[in-house]
Hints:
Layout: E1 2-5, E2 18-23, E3 29-32, E4 39-45, H1 50-70, E5 74-80, H2 85-95, E6 102-105, H3 113-116, E7 124-128, E8 134-138, H4 145-153, H5 165-169, E9 175-177, H6 182-200, H7 203-209, E10 212-226, E11 231-244, H8 246-255, H9 257-260, E12 266-273
Parallel strand pairs: 1-10, 4-5, 5-6, 11-12
Antiparallel strand pairs: 2-3, 2-6, 4-7, 7-8, 9-11, 10-11
Helix pairs in contact: 7-8
Amino acid sequence: MQIGIKVAYGVGSQMGVIKGVNKVTEDGKADLKHEEGQVILLDFWATWCPPCQKPMAHNQEMLEKRGKDWADKVRFLGLSIDDSPKTVKEHVTEKNKWTAVEHYHVKTEGCTADDEYGVEGVPHVLLVDTTGKIVFVGHPSSRDLEKDIDALLKGETLSGEGTGASASKGEESKETSGAGDASKIAETKESFKATQKTFLEGEAAKTAGGKLQRGFVVLVDEQSYDVKTRELKHKLECHLQLMGSQEGIDAVKDLVKDLAYNDLWKTNEMFRAM
């Protein structure tokens, strides 16, 4: 299991520019950014990751099926965390013929895409709407991505798993602002770190975590500056994702309840029994 604190792009954030990625099917580097009117699927994956293979094959199938309909309005970006772009090229061109997807290699000097987009494990997918806003974060199998893309092209709003607790549960965003809250936010982060240290050192966590294929708890502090009020606003969200045996999911969820759930933030859950 991985537990930590990280500031990353999440649901509601605008997609940033992913700088300095290696091109996979040709030489050189590229900067990836959103263009107005496009829907983008960002798929962080690896050739050595068994759970990544079916989603990437599905990406290819969707583009073969809908490529003409979507034309230049939809982009699928495969962002590999492999050690070498050569390995990725052989895997997607010679072995699997997944060439409809735009493939890039992000494990390169100067590129911090995996950190910036909260990648704690792969596959890790984000959907970006026509305005450049991230509207889904999570495991690709948790959504009907083809249906979601069609909806986004129509300007519709996604709801449900991976789209944020405010969309799926009708909750309002917990947001604080002003210098007076800075100490409270800092205290909350320190408390989270102290609790996670105690949790990780416990034998119960090691035993339960061993029954999961993937598990992480991430506390995100999304900050924005209000130019009108001249205040720095904070929005805390906790992302809890557990994949593995149902027994392991139940055990870990019970163990992390004091860590992952708090009145100061929303907790976005994704549980997948396998």
